[in-house]
């Protein structure tokens, strides 16, 4: 088949990303410029500062991706892809305008990609040659997403479940903060996991049991876990007053409940597919929270227990391709470029875009 090089741009949230990927599944460049300072200062993404950072960083991200790839944009790049949505409109437009201008100036075909399709298709790139076979399930758990997706083909996706309130990643972050934990270099969620894993005490201080929100329903909710921790800490005078053993018991109970919640919904999702006669063999778990080792172990054993006759193949793409990146955007555009499809240069953003 034809050899094709894609330059892709992603700017839907707070990371400014550019990448070059070819049709032989080689990643020739993967540049991600993060906005750490913004995150740490406000504990969230502030639209105006995110837009400003994209505007400052985008030219460098693109230049570096091309340098890393050792390709020439005029001679070697065959198509330009960008994230069309969903995401923050101001952020998306920085990436879209860069992509459009390059494509129009250089007379290259242009394709606008759905951000979630990018995440959902990542494993078909990274797990080669044992990539998941359609239909497969993707559990996307990060700071930005809490989603259970059914990938039916490279063009057909269905959201089986999403969160009604907070994302699972942000909930780990907030609970970590409430417990007064110091960040590890991998952030507050990782700090919480490490804190839970510290030595086992003989004496387990008791903490009130966590709620089971939306039990039996194929939908996520994390705000009740968050308020459970908030209430306990407030009633006991904040993290400076609560002894470390109690804080650790609370952290563990939170992590157990949060992972239990994800587990329950995954099983409900598999049940739903079964009831519709959709045979699932592969389950891909991705996003920042998927790096949690406790979660990985629980999902493995829960699936093994769930159905002793079916063996599910559980996979985790490498962490740097689970978080937002432009490699996944390039890859999600590839099958369309290879089918000679392209979008008009007048294409518009879809900040709210169901999959
Ligand atoms: O995919 P990601 O890196 O980017 C965004 O969504 O922005 O996900 C980051 C999220 C954060 O909320 C972080 O605390 C969480 O993933 N996270 C973890 C762990 N490592 C990162 N949560 C639980 N356990 C971990 N080990
Ligand atoms: Zn994302």
UniProtKB/TrEMBL annotation:
Gene3D superfamilies recorded: 3.30.420.40
Broad class of enzyme this protein falls into: transferase
UniProt catalytic activity: L-threonylcarbamoyladenylate + adenosine(37) in tRNA = N(6)-L-threonylcarbamoyladenosine(37) in tRNA + AMP + H(+)
Molecular function terms from GO: metal ion binding; tRNA N(6)-L-threonylcarbamoyladenine synthase activity
The protein's Enzyme Commission number: 2.3.1.234
Record keywords, A-Z: Acyltransferase, Metal-binding, Mitochondrion, Transferase, tRNA processing
Subunit and interaction comment: Homodimer.
Family from the record: Belongs to the KAE1 / TsaD family.
Function: Required for the formation of a threonylcarbamoyl group on adenosine at position 37 (t(6)A37) in mitochondrial tRNAs that read codons beginning with adenine. Probably involved in the transfer of the threonylcarbamoyl moiety of threonylcarbamoyl-AMP (TC-AMP) to the N6 group of A37. Involved in mitochondrial genome maintenance.
Name this polypeptide is given: N(6)-L-threonylcarbamoyladenine synthase
Organism per entry: Agrocybe pediades
């Amino acid at each position: 088949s034809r050899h094709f090089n894609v330059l892709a741009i992603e700017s839907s949230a707070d990371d400014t990303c550019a990448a070059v990927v070819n049709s032989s599944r080689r990643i020739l460049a993967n540049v991600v410029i993060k906005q750490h300072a913004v995150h740490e200062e406000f504990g969230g993404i502030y639209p105006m500062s995110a837009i400003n950072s994209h505007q400052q960083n985008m030219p460098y991200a693109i230049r570096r991706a091309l340098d890393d790839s050792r390709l020439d944009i005029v001679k070697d790049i065959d198509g330009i892809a960008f994230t069309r949505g969903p995401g923050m409109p101001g952020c998306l437009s920085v990436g879209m305008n860069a992509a459009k201008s390059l494509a129009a100036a250089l007379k290259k075909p242009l394709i606008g990609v759905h951000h979630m399709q990018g995440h959902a298709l990542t494993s078909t790139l990274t797990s080669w040659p044992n990539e998941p076979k359609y239909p497969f399930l993707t559990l996307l758990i990060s700071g930005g997403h809490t989603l259970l997706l059914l990938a039916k083909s490279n063009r057909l996706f269905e959201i089986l479940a999403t969160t009604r309130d907070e994302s699972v990643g942000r909930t780990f972050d907030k609970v970590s903060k409430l417990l007064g934990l110091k960040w590890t270099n991998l952030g507050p969620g990782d700090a919480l996991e490490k804190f839970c894993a510290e030595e086992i005490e003989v004496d387990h201080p008791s903490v009130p049991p966590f709620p089971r929100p939306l039990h039996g329903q194929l939908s996520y909710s994390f705000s009740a876990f968050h308020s459970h921790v908030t209430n306990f800490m407030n009633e006991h005078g904040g993290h400076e007053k609560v002894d470390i053993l109690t804080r650790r018991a609370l952290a563990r109970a939170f992590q157990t409940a949060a992972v239990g919640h994800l587990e329950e919904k995954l099983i409900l999702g598999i049940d739903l597919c079964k009831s519709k006669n959709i045979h699932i063999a592969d389950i891909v778990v991705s996003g920042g929270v998927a790096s949690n080792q406790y979660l990985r172990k629980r999902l493995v054993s829960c699936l093994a227990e769930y159905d002793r006759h079916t063996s599910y193949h559980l996979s985790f793409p490498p962490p740097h391709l689970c978080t937002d990146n432009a490699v996944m955007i390039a890859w999600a555009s590839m099958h369309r470029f290879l089918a000679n499809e392209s979008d008009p240069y007048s294409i518009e953003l879809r900040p709210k875009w169901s999959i």
